[in-house]
Write a structure and sequence with these properties.
Helix content: 55-70%
Strand content: 5-15%
Distance between the termini: 45 Å
Largest sheet: 3 strands, antiparallel
Number of helices: 10
Order of helices and strands: HHEHEEHHHHHHEEH
Number of strands: 5
Radius of gyration: 24 Å
Structural class: mainly alpha
């Protein structure tokens, strides 16, 4: 990290806790006490005039904002925002779930909302399948990856009972 002008004048560089909190406040805006990565880092920034703390919230001062930009955190924030805009984040996953559920539901004559829940259930239990789901979509229904027994949420059986996937796994002789 380059030493920002503000800190050169203060006489000593930021310690790692102060740097972590500076980055956190710059990237996330005002931060609640309980969410701080380091309270000692926050205290150091407040003592230096780079942050203020009020009623459990802390945020950067103008000097703190300039220090964060000079430290290179502006590039990190821009990259993060660009990733979110490009659809590689959570929104893209949600949109893909809706798209796949609509397509499979249309073809199978089943409600898309039920299928979307099934997808969420399986991906929550098996996050290692998220990247594959994003690239293959409906193929995970075809190969059995998105079967209800692979999920984590309860479902309504054909007989009307509400069951946990572990019951179905047990019936099929699977462990998880």
């Amino acid at each position: 990290m380059a030493l920002p002008t503000q800190l050169k004048e203060a006489g000593r560089p930021l310690d790692s806790a102060e740097r972590d909190v500076l980055r956190q406040m710059f990237l996330n805006g005002p931060v609640w006490d309980g969410d701080l990565v380091s309270k000692s880092g926050r205290s150091g920034l407040v003592e230096r005039g780079l942050a203020i703390s009020h009623d459990g919230w802390q945020t950067l001062t103008e000097a703190g904002f300039v220090a964060a930009i000079e430290a290179g955190f502006g590039q990190a924030k821009e990259a993060w925002q660009n990733r979110r805009r490009s659809g590689t984040g959570e929104r893209a996953v949600i949109e893909k779930i809706a798209q796949v559920a609509n397509a499979v539901g249309f073809q199978a004559g089943e409600p898309a909302m039920e299928l979307a829940g099934q997808v969420v259930s399986v991906l929550a239990a098996n996050p290692e399948h998220i990247a594959r789901f994003m690239s293959e979509g409906t193929g995970l229904f075809l190969d059995g990856t998105l079967n209800p027994e692979n999920g984590s949420l309860t479902f309504r059986s054909i007989g009307g009972d509400i069951l946990h996937p572990s019951v179905l796994r047990q019936q099929k002789g699977k462990q998880q």
